[in-house]
Amino acid sequence: MPNDLEGMGRLLARHELPARFERWRLRLPVGASRLTSAEEWAGALVLVECGRLEAECTVGGTRTFREGDLLALGWLPLRRLISVGEEDLELLAVRRRDVGTTERYLHVVRAPAGTTIRRGPKPSRRALP
């Protein structure tokens, strides 16, 4: 694990966490995959402890993460986790026990009824010199 994240890894992996937190690990052999969704990872900080993770999204794109990367998988439109690389993938996840879904973290701010929202001028569509 890279030096700058060793402290975070130790913090997430310490033997005892406060009772309001839960921790779990996921291990996938090289080449294996697992169907998943954002809800499964809601509110979790996920550390790639070993290997390389390819996250496949519901819209079709993929993104690869490596050992030492710290992720918030609950914010991605996940479809599948894939272990790529030369070592088995090991993920360590920690979150508060009272987290249900990612919706708890999405706050929509609406203006009260009858409020006028002023917008700035529209950008020009003319070509730049």
Summarize the structure.
Helix content is 9%, strand content 35%. It is mainly β and 129 residues long.
Describe the protein.
- This protein starts with a helix and ends in a 33-residue tail after the last strand.
- The protein is mainly beta.
- It has one helix and eight strands, in the order αββββββββ.
- It is globular and about 35 Å long.
- The protein has one helix at 3-13; strands at residues 21-28, 33-35, 45-50, 52-57, 62-66, 70-71, 78-84, 89-96.
Which features characterize this protein?
8 strands, 129 residues, four-stranded antiparallel β-sheet, mainly beta, 9% helix, 1 helix, single chain
Topology readout:
Blueprint: H1 3-13, E1 21-28, E2 33-35, E3 45-50, E4 52-57, E5 62-66, E6 70-71, E7 78-84, E8 89-96
Order of helices and strands: HEEEEEEEE
Classify the helix fraction into a percent range. Answer: under 10%
Q: Which shape, going by the Cα principal axes?
A: globular
**Based on the structure, what is the oligomeric state of the protein chains?**
single chain
Uncertain segments: 101-111
